[in-house]
Please model this.
Amino acid sequence: MTEPLIRVAGLGLSIHDMPILQDVSLDIAPGRVTALVGESGSGKSMTALALIGLLPEGSQTTGTATLDRRDLLTLPERAWLDLRGNDIGMIFQEPMTALNPVQTIGAQVSETLRLRGTGRAEAERIARDRLDRVGLAHVPLDRYPHQLSGGQRQRVCIAMVIARRPRLLIADEPTTALDVTTQAGILALLRDLVEEQGMALLLITHDLGVVARTADHVAVMQTGRIVEQGATEALFRTHAHPYTRDLLAASRPAPRQPRAHATAPVLETRAVTRRYGATTAVDAVSFTLHRGESLGLVGESGCGKSTLTRALLGLEPVQGGEIALMGAPGGTAMTNAQRARLSVVFQDPYGSFDPRWTVARIVTEPFHLTGRPQDARARAAKALEQVGLSASDLAKYPHEFSGGQRQRIAIARALITEPEVLVLDEAVSALDVRVRAQVLRLLDDLQARLGLAYLFISHDLTVVRAICDRVLVMQNGRFVEDGSIAQVWSAPQSDYTAELIAAAPTIPDSWLTS
Amino acid sequence: MPRALLTRALSLSLSLAVASVVIFVMLQAVPGDPAAFMLGLNAEPEAVAALRAELGLEGSLLDRYLHWVAGMLTGDFGTSYTYRVPVADLVADRITVSAPLALYALTLTILIAIPVGLIAASRRGGPADWGIMGATQLGIAVPNFWFAMLLVFVFAVQLRWVSAGGFPGWSDPGAALKSLTLPALALALPQASILARVLRSAVLDTLDRDYIRTARAKGLSRRAVVLRHALRNAAIPVLTILGLQFSFLLAGAIIIENVFFLPGLGRLIFQGITQRDLIVVQSVTMLLVFAVICVTFLVEVAYTLADPRLRR
Amino acid sequence: MRGAMAIGVVLTAVFTLAAAVSLAWVPYDVARLDISQRLLPPSLAHPLGTDHFGRDMVSMLMEGARTSIAVALVAVGIGVGAGVPLGLWAAANRGGWLDEVIMRANDLIFAFPSLVIAILITAVFGPSAVNAILAIGIFNIPVFARVARGGALPLWTLDYIMAARVAGKGRARISAEHILPNIANLLIVQATIQFSLGILAEAALSYVGLGAQPPTASWGRMLADAQTMIYTEPQLAVLPGLAIVAMVLGLNLLGDGLRDALDPRLRRRAL
Model:
């Protein structure tokens, strides 16, 4: 075991007297990837901010974090200015907003060098070198952030951080906002930098798959404490702590057992095409969803799945092809009675409800389609009970519920008109893994009981595998794959599907079976 | 020129055209015949008719509109009913007071607002911030013409440092500037209060952004972050307000010129209104609208320079 | 910050109350001029003295408050009544020709120096309180249209609006049920701002003789009268000016306080 670069001992933190962290102890070793993993609110980001001296106002710390025999937690701001960028650098989750929109990327990468007296030509040479190193050799220095993709911007952030070759790089959810194939590239780059430069990397993430693929050492955090830590593979193999065990189980939901369904089609498209000006977002796609079937629709951002979803829901017209719901014309041609047969659950548990409406009013809103029945309130209560909530929740407001409960309310709203088809648009993507597992179980259970057909739209193959019978893979507005789960995973027909499966970070089965 | 700016220029020209129609039509609604008004109650009908012809009041509405617009485009703003001289000459004379006054006030506004706003933003929550926020809150609430009266009372009536009004002309630039100082101050203080507050909140807003955190994480001090990253991003909302303020300064000048008896465009409009000298009112208003639209366009150009996302 | 809002509430309440009381009762009839009572110093009978026509200053200020508030309030009403529906409509049809027309018309009105046009309107149609209201109100329309559109556009991308559309609701109904209640905060704050700007504009118009006409009292007119006597009776210019400052200050403090109290984003930041 090498000497640690930074030794965190008994770190405690409270912000305006609210306790955030307790007794966090962690060694961060050079040349290694140390992961800090946990659900939202576990305190992992605050730990990172404490190590770079950027805690919010009103923070009080206890304990020590030692670098070169100096305690980082008591360092004055003046001393931090020399340390930040020079010894410790950090990249953040949201690459779209992490760069100054009015400065060129060259200026931003070379800025700290210039501020510390490096000449202009030399600073530019270093900036060019770092951008080349992070895989942006083809991008000129005078580009502005808005001209780059999300993955490219994250690479610029990395180039910026390594401009002065820090000894510790902190990466806070660096790939969470990115597509899986982009994520794989960024993670590989970070690993390479660690090996090449002997740098220490503190990787903050919620994703155990990312940990398994990237980290040497892992610490599991729950509500402000480290509950367990150790070498990654050993920790995954033993998973001594019950919380770790829960996380692991929830992260790898079991693939669904093939289930029989009827052969009657409920939702069909034939050569549906949607164009915006010169670009074709959805290019002549055809599929059939059968009664009681669960069909996955997978693709990365911009592949056209959202556009297709809006067309299926009748929110946008199509320029070509046909949509049929229960044998009648679908899409924008649906009558209100037909729309009642097709419901939707959206991704964002916070944006899904009007904050000023009660749950009763929210859940009964779809009765607009059918006319409000006499027993609307009783049916709302029944829908809530179906999703594991209670009738007493009807009078509450959305902000009184957690993210998982909100998704249950959204499902109750979708069920109120007793539809045949449920469109689940990234319905579990914003949830923590353990809550995600519960909602997936609920969806599976509802399908079995009510005989619903699901169209399950997701970017996450693990989830699709757990809930679907069949999967469509979409790329550039077209379906490149259509097959049963077993078939697609064992023998994908398209290279793209194979690439997606390979890129998705998963925990090796061998670590868990022994 | 980027395409966005070109479309903007076209759309603003359209605004200008519509504005000219609105102003023209509105002034047609004024009751009474200017010629009859000018010649008094006992005028001979023949004399009135002759004067109408001379003033260009004959012909269809459309003819008169086109004649007016065509004239404006060639610098002919018509002939004043009361002074019997070309309006263009009147304007040329008065603009040497109004334009310097507006620029003087704008300069004062910027010179006061920028340091004040930056101090408040950088000492957020401290005593300096509280003091500045309180003072600017008061500054916004003060009507500029009342402030002007107070200035006259203190500096002209009590201290006798300056005269209470009038304009000596530009033959002595020092005296001219001195006579414009109180009016410019009266115009500038309320506007500077607004601008300082906008600047403060724009800077504070950008300081909350992710890229500020990025810049801090790479080792920039708070001060360097404000100067190198926050200011240029904060410039965008500040420019918008500055553009709008120009039109407030123009309009405010009309009233302030009255307080200080300055022979500017504002007084010209007022005299035009009271003497029913409609062609003067019509042309000077059009000129002011033109000025505002030009400034709007300049602001858009400045935007494009400040924000690369708007360049295509 | 709470203190500032309390000052705002008190100032606004005092003037609103004075204006309301003046509808039923004022100490002295301001329409009656009595030269024998001119320029009296403050006394029990006239707590703030009398002006150069012998009118009681308290009564004048009360009536002036009524004129200011009436003009500004109705002007805000015009702005809200016409501007908010237009803004909501534009947002509901984003990018459509209607949105384009509404926003271009807004640009057009912004291109006019507002006070110049207000002066023009009152000059053309004759000086009166009603024309002052119209002149100020017209310029409130684009302000509220912009605020409503700007507030509504981000809401239209939210999932609950999508859910309402999936539930078969039309754009007008969604605007009324979901959008309007959720931008009410913005509109209330903007209304207090426009209210205070309206008071300043009314004062300016009546100062130049284009607002309410005598015998109706108004603060701007009182200042205009006082100006001619600034050498001999400067105190006459103080009270109406202070009244304007206090009223506008009160409304601005109230507006800032409301914005902080109603904006959940700011509330979070205050933690």
In short: The first helix of chain C runs from residue 2 to 24. Confidence is low (pLDDT under 50) at residues 265-271 of chain C.
